[in-house]
Amino acid sequence: MIRSIINFVLIVGLAAAGVYGVNQFKSSRIKLKERTDYTRDSVMVEPYTVQTVTVSDSGVFKGVTEAYRQTRLGAEIAGKATYVKPQARVGEEVKKGEVLVRLDTELLELDLERLKSSLSSGELSVKAAEADVTRLEHDLEIARENLEVAKRLHERNVELYQNGNISESDMDRSRLELLGGRKAVQTGEDALVSAKISIERAREELKVLSVQISQVEMRIEKSRVKAPFDGTIAQKNCEEGEYVNPASPLFIIQSREKLYFTARVPAEEIGRIRKNDVTVQLYDLREHELHGRIEHIGLVSDPRTRTYVVKVVLDNRKLSLRPGMFGTVEVPLPAREFSPGIPTRSVLNDGGESYVYVIEDKTAAIRYIETGEVEGGMVEVESGLEDGEVIATSGFDMLTPGGTVEFVRIDRGTGE
Predict the structure, then answer these.
(1) Could you give phi then psi for residue 5, rounded to 5 degrees?
(2) What backbone phi and psi angles, to 5 degrees, belong to 248?
(3) Spatial contact of 9 and 356, defined as CB atoms under 8 Å apart
């Protein structure tokens, strides 16, 4: 019984295999006939007339968003932080000029008070000295007038003495009065000079005090760490009560209303980059295209990657973007001239060598060529083709050297 079942299964299997084989054979005959019938006719190809072409393209480069403006904010003097703004946390916004940290200024305040007191005393002393100078100038003027009177009297007394009209004692008294007048003038002049020197010294001391006061006030001002611009706290490294020094950054502040998209451009492309409008696509915001403008093109390459930095400014007034978002930027590149140029789809490969099908009198012939740069779907031909020659850009699965062709549509090169 079992043997009968096995025989039945074998017979059915052989029958099915025979039917499948016949069908495959018929199918292959049909396909072969179809292909044979097709190759007997001319091959339909799309032609292209070789010519000089101007091609334009755009480059796509990877990059990442970065802060448009960032500062490592620190204290300009050393000291103990007596105040740290309670709301100064990472992610919080700050306004330009807002005090974030204040350092201990008790000793500076005492020093400032002492200097100001000295300045006030010095100013009073200068005013008193100026009054003395005024008085001395007045006294000197009177002494000089008295001296002139004494001179005239003495001259008259000399004449009277020579005529015997006054005694020797009267003449001696006249001489003494003249000498006294001269001495009074000399004393007044010396006193005035000394007073003026003293007042100049006092004024110089006031200038020194003013400078010292300005320096202390500046140190007090520097004890207040203020936000340099409107932005967001990206990092905080300070707590109230800590001792800080100028070498330690207390905050990192970043601007938000604008961002940079920083891309790396290969050395062979950087010469074609211009400060133009560009399109940025961020991986995290694929549904949104961002538009910006190139603001900075690097002048020095990275020696490891041989790439240059290109910075694109992005508008972020809605604050939807953050630093550290990766994406790509599409940069329009200047048009280039290929003389001649042909479509890349027309170039075939034979063991590493490039060739095309040249059409002459509707007959196809293989022509090996040397190609150059590729851009915008076109490739530059360095040798092997001349302007005006016609090549095939399709139908390669049926083309053979020496085969006849028919043009499938209008030649885009000549418009014929």
Answers:
(1) -65, -45
(2) -105, 120
(3) no
